[in-house]
Fold this protein.
Amino acid sequence: MTDAKRRALELAARYVCPDRVRTFEAMGVDLVIGRREGYRLWDLDGRELLDFHLNGGVFNLGHRHPELVAALRDALDTLDVGNHHFPSLARAELAEALVHTMPGDLQYVVFSPSGGEAVDVAIKSARHATQRRAVVSIEGGYHGHTGLALATGEERFARFFLSGGASEEFVQVPFNDLDAMEAALRRHQVAAVILETIPATCGFPLPAPGYLSGVKALCERNGALYIADEVQTGLGRTGRMWGVECFGVTPDILITGKGLSGGLYPIAATVLAPAAARWLEQDGWGHLSTFGGAEVGCRVAQKVLEITTRPGTLDGVHATSDRLAAGLERLRARYPEWLVEIRRRGLVMGLRFAHERGGQMMTRACYDAGLWAMFAGFDPAVLQFKAGLLLDAATCDEALGRFEQGLQGCLALLGR
């Protein structure tokens, strides 16, 4: 271990994230990222890894994409964060570009520095529009760690910080259960239902046919708004610009983040239909965010949208998805008692293994094989397998080869 890496681990354990350092150490993962380029990372020790984690989709377009770096550098010649009180050309032009990608009549954009804050904006907007308080989400969902977002997600996180969790105001129901959703909407005065289009942290289980459109119909019938959390499934990852488009749903509010930043400058957005945005006409200071829509970040995000909406980008997503799926199916046929399920919609993929902690075990085994992929936090039987939008065929095949090495290493440890 190099001195630089040892120092980074020691300082992180002392000042930043002691439990996280200990947890990864117990897993046998001592990654401290140094150089990064495209879909590759180099540890401070110089060890190379293919990045199939992408920090939840932050690096959809790769690490330090040259056009995004150039956009940031160009912006820094004349711009800075800006002043959130005043109109800004950078914010206005990004909002216009973002709205042009949206389904339905989503028209108004509120910028934030993180997905969690964007979720808070969505919930506040829904509450103001409906004059109701209750919010329905799913068990095992994840929407961030800020105040309102925390209460909509996994209850253990809310309890940990004495933030409530499941209650009359924050109601949770099982995923893919329309009867439970209908009962919750009838029982409570619900402002909104918030759903990840494909829930990430519980391992990317796919919505059952008709589920999401059924939830939208229930919302309309009961006077609630539908909030689509597209922080991980948006920006082309499903093969459509927004995941809800795969399921025929037009939300009242859509949240995007992570990949919108290009991995270079934090930015997220809440996009509102007119009915959800009335507060913007009534009180321009109803929500404030000093760093929401920082001008230099807006220029990066605008370039992210331009690259993502190029004709070849989504075609490439479909080709990469099909290539990886074919390779993964071959491996499932070869190791049927270990790799038991492949969940896929475009590049949103979850791989389930025949052990309750199989995904976590595969995280370590893939790390040893030179592939960084992270297990699902709420279902460690599942490995999140996240390819980038611009991945080429050769790198797909290389990743499949390293993944098979991880399979073999994991099975050897299990004595199979």
About this structure: The radius of gyration is 21 Å. The mean pLDDT is 95. The chain has two domains: 31-64+311-414, 66-308. The CA atoms of residues 273 and 400 lie 42 Å apart.
